[in-house]
Amino acid sequence: DTGVSQNPRHKITKRGQNVTFRCDPISEHNRLYWYRQTLGQGPEFLTYFQNEAQLEKSRLLSDRFSAERPKGSFSTLEIQRTEQGDSAMYLCASSLRQGDNEQFFGPGTRLTVL
Amino acid sequence: KQEVTQIPAALSVPEGENLVLNCSFTDSAIYNLQWFRQDPGKGLTSLLLIQSSQREQTSGRLNASLDKSSGRSTLYIAASQPGDSATYLCAVMTTDSWGKLQFGAGTQVVVTP
Question: Which residue does chain B place closest to A103, by CA atoms?
Fold first, then answer.
């Protein structure tokens, strides 16, 4: 399968714990995006990378959130001191810099904070 | 600030009918518009992408139109099937926020046999 993959698919954690999610983009894609989706809503943009450079961060990305893409391949999204309001589906997408920039999404990581 | 709206929020049709899904946006300075399908608890599947210079795009039973001047896009699904039941989302990329997709809340579709 050459699509976008995300791990884990589900994460249940207690409030105050730290969690980390991983995203592996389509191999030739140099742009990588993180979105968050809550029930009944469309995804909301969090941040994106071109290669290893983080080019834009949403105001939704508080100081407790950090994303990295150290070698321009996979990316990690870490949430520190989780809160119940962080419960959501975290979606990763990738695209080519050239062309129409069509974004392809992974299956998502469902986070539940108890 | 770009606002993307999808009406209706939910739609139920009998199998065989054509589906018409609407998407409106407030800022016409868009780079492209993408339509996605999302099954419950799953990620998004890209259906069609329309560049700002295009009027429509077709793939099989799917046809999407774009009217930038009126801030509207319509997704047509011909001869609906129960397998078309899902939530359909539209997303726009504006020229001043390149790379970031802004989504509507989606239209939940049920096709009854």
Answer: B46
